[in-house]
């Protein structure tokens, strides 16, 4: 069996780091298994789905390193859903209902008041052909419910019927179909809700593993029942915990919280985002991982916690910095060039440990190339003048800083912080930064002399 997984976002907004967690779990699972990854847009909601959102989702996944083996849009597969709905109707498993939303809510409220679960009572099954015709003559159009297999021939006498599966994240799971209402699969306007298209596509695309968020656990029992009604095999399921902020707030495409696009625009490394998205809420320590192959080796669905996967967005900066510190010049040369940063490998190796993001190199390139506003305290003016006169002749290398400061120390008697800090501030305009041994040769004698003047 070829492992085949899918990520099925609705193109109704930009995906966030929580969505990327699901996408990455699927991608890494397929990558480690030599399998296939399907990107399937759940775009049957024609009012809210937008092509620009679909394009942004593809771009965000590509930035993370996810390249689908197949891309599908459910809006182009309606004929398959129509055929499946026809089969279910013919089998007596999809039946028309005419209640309005208000009528259904009143029934649920009444059931709660009587201490009963607010489960649909299947009243529409009792309607005769003449009654249905009369309702339609009033202008009502039916929505269609799937008859759950929680009875022994009499749908009005449901009994406990457990659907069980061995969840790859959560272990043994059981859902009682008698505790659920028959799900609506088709709206009054003939359009499909999420459930039936998802099942039909999983069958048609031979999805072997459904890896998704724990908010879909209750849906799984219904989907397994529909799979069986359509004579299909059941894939393996894995329901991972969801990412929330440190205070437990959920993420939302609608709110745009921590969207992948915004993280990319902020200059974060894709592997910082991927590392946090995948490792948070697992038995692994959250650490920066160099590439997706290494992250795939670390993925263990059984090690995903059943508790909320809380994270602090500030952790991304720390992860990002650790990744940037390890990046070679070859890995960043094109980006540095696009940012207008020169200096080659020598410059990058001198400044990278002072960069949280690659773009931070711009600041240090300004320190090297100028212009720089020297920070010279009045009390240090004579000291700086003396130091300028002791500048070594070129060529300069990493030994120049030591040679210069040794000469200044001998001449002025200064040492420690009083020796080094005024020189750093005068040359760079800052009281902190990269090692001056590496920085000074890049600045050069002429620039250094001008800044000390």
UniProtKB/TrEMBL annotation:
<keyword id="KW-0030">Aminoacyl-tRNA synthetase</keyword>
<dbReference type="InterPro" id="IPR004527">
    <property type="entry name" value="Glu-tRNA-ligase_bac/mito"/>
</dbReference>
<dbReference type="GO" id="GO:0006424">
    <property type="term" value="P:glutamyl-tRNA aminoacylation"/>
</dbReference>
<keyword id="KW-0963">Cytoplasm</keyword>
<dbReference type="InterPro" id="IPR020751">
    <property type="entry name" value="aa-tRNA-synth_I_codon-bd_sub2"/>
</dbReference>
<keyword id="KW-0436">Ligase</keyword>
<feature type="domain" description="Aminoacyl-tRNA synthetase class I anticodon-binding">
    <location>
        <begin position="382"/>
        <end position="452"/>
    </location>
</feature>
<feature type="domain" description="Glutamyl/glutaminyl-tRNA synthetase class Ib catalytic">
    <location>
        <begin position="3"/>
        <end position="315"/>
    </location>
</feature>
<dbReference type="InterPro" id="IPR020058">
    <property type="entry name" value="Glu/Gln-tRNA-synth_Ib_cat-dom"/>
</dbReference>
<dbReference type="InterPro" id="IPR049940">
    <property type="entry name" value="GluQ/Sye"/>
</dbReference>
<comment type="function">
    <text>Catalyzes the attachment of glutamate to tRNA(Glu) in a two-step reaction: glutamate is first activated by ATP to form Glu-AMP and then transferred to the acceptor end of tRNA(Glu).</text>
</comment>
<dbReference type="GO" id="GO:0004818">
    <property type="term" value="F:glutamate-tRNA ligase activity"/>
</dbReference>
<comment type="similarity">
    <text>Belongs to the class-I aminoacyl-tRNA synthetase family. Glutamate--tRNA ligase type 1 subfamily.</text>
</comment>
<keyword id="KW-0547">Nucleotide-binding</keyword>
<feature type="binding site">
    <location>
        <position position="253"/>
    </location>
    <ligand>
        <name>ATP</name>
    </ligand>
</feature>
<dbReference type="GO" id="GO:0000049">
    <property type="term" value="F:tRNA binding"/>
</dbReference>
<keyword id="KW-0648">Protein biosynthesis</keyword>
<dbReference type="GO" id="GO:0005737">
    <property type="term" value="C:cytoplasm"/>
</dbReference>
<dbReference type="InterPro" id="IPR014729">
    <property type="entry name" value="Rossmann-like_a/b/a_fold"/>
</dbReference>
<dbReference type="GO" id="GO:0005524">
    <property type="term" value="F:ATP binding"/>
</dbReference>
<dbReference type="Pfam" id="PF00749">
    <property type="entry name" value="tRNA-synt_1c"/>
</dbReference>
<dbReference type="InterPro" id="IPR000924">
    <property type="entry name" value="Glu/Gln-tRNA-synth"/>
</dbReference>
<dbReference type="InterPro" id="IPR008925">
    <property type="entry name" value="aa_tRNA-synth_I_cd-bd_sf"/>
</dbReference>
<comment type="subunit">
    <text>Monomer.</text>
</comment>
<feature type="short sequence motif" description="'HIGH' region">
    <location>
        <begin position="9"/>
        <end position="19"/>
    </location>
</feature>
<dbReference type="InterPro" id="IPR001412">
    <property type="entry name" value="aa-tRNA-synth_I_CS"/>
</dbReference>
<dbReference type="InterPro" id="IPR045462">
    <property type="entry name" value="aa-tRNA-synth_I_cd-bd"/>
</dbReference>
<protein>
    <recommendedName>
        <fullName>Glutamate--tRNA ligase</fullName>
        <ecNumber>6.1.1.17</ecNumber>
    </recommendedName>
</protein>
<dbReference type="Pfam" id="PF19269">
    <property type="entry name" value="Anticodon_2"/>
</dbReference>
<feature type="short sequence motif" description="'KMSKS' region">
    <location>
        <begin position="250"/>
        <end position="254"/>
    </location>
</feature>
<keyword id="KW-0067">ATP-binding</keyword>
């Amino acid at each position: 069996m070829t492992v085949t997984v899918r990520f099925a976002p609705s193109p109704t907004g930009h995906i966030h780091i929580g969505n990327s967690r699901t996408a990455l779990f699927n991608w890494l699972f397929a990558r480690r298994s030599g399998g296939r990854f399907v990107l399937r847009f759940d775009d049957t909601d024609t009012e809210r789905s937008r092509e620009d959102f679909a394009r942004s989702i593809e771009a965000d996944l590509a930035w993370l390193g996810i390249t689908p083996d197949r891309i599908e849009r459910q809006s182009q597969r309606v004929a398959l859903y129509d055929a499946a709905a026809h089969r279910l109707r013919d089998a007596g498993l999809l039946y028309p209902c005419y209640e309005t939303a208000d009528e259904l809510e009143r029934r649920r409220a009444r059931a709660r008041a009587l201490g009963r679960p607010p489960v649909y009572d299947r009243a529409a099954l009792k309607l005769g052909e003449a009654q249905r015709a009369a309702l339609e003559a009033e202008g009502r159009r039916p929505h269609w419910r799937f008859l759950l297999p929680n009875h022994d021939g009499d749908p009005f006498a449901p009994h406990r019927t457990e659907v069980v599966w061995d969840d790859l994240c959560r272990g043994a799971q059981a859902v009682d179909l008698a505790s659920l209402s028959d799900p609506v699969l088709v709206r009054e306007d003939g359009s499909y809700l999420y459930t039936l298209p998802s099942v039909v596509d999983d069958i048609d695309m031979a999805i072997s593993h459904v890896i998704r968020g724990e908010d879909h656990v209750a849906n799984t029992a219904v989907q397994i029942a529909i799979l069986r009604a359509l004579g299909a095999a059941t894939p393996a399921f894995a329901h991972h915990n969801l990412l929330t902020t440190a205070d437990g707030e959920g993420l939302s495409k609608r709110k745009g919280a921590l969207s992948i696009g915004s993280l990319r625009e902020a200059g974060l490394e894709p592997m910082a985002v991927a590392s946090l998205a995948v490792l948070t809420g697992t038995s692994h320590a959250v650490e920066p991982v160099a590439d997706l192959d290494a992250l795939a080796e670390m993925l263990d669905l059984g090690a995903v916690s059943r508790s909320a996967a809380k994270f602090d967005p500030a952790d991304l900066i720390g992860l990002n910095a650790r990744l940037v510190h390890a990046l070679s010049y070859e890995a960043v040369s094109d980006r540095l060039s696009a940012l207008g940063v020169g200096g080659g490998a020598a410059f990058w190796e001198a400044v990278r440990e002072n960069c949280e993001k690659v773009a931070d190199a711009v600041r240090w390139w300004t320190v090297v190339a100028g212009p720089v506003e020297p920070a010279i305290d009045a009390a240090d003016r004579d000291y700086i003048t003396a130091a300028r006169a002791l500048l070594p002749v070129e060529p300069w290398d990493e030994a120049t800083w030591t040679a210069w400061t040794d000469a200044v120390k001998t001449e002025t008697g200064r040492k420690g912080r009083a020796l080094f800090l005024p020189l750093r501030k005068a040359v760079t305009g800052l009281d902190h930064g990269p090692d001056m041994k590496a920085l000074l040769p890049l600045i050069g004698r002429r620039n250094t002399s001008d800044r000390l003047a």
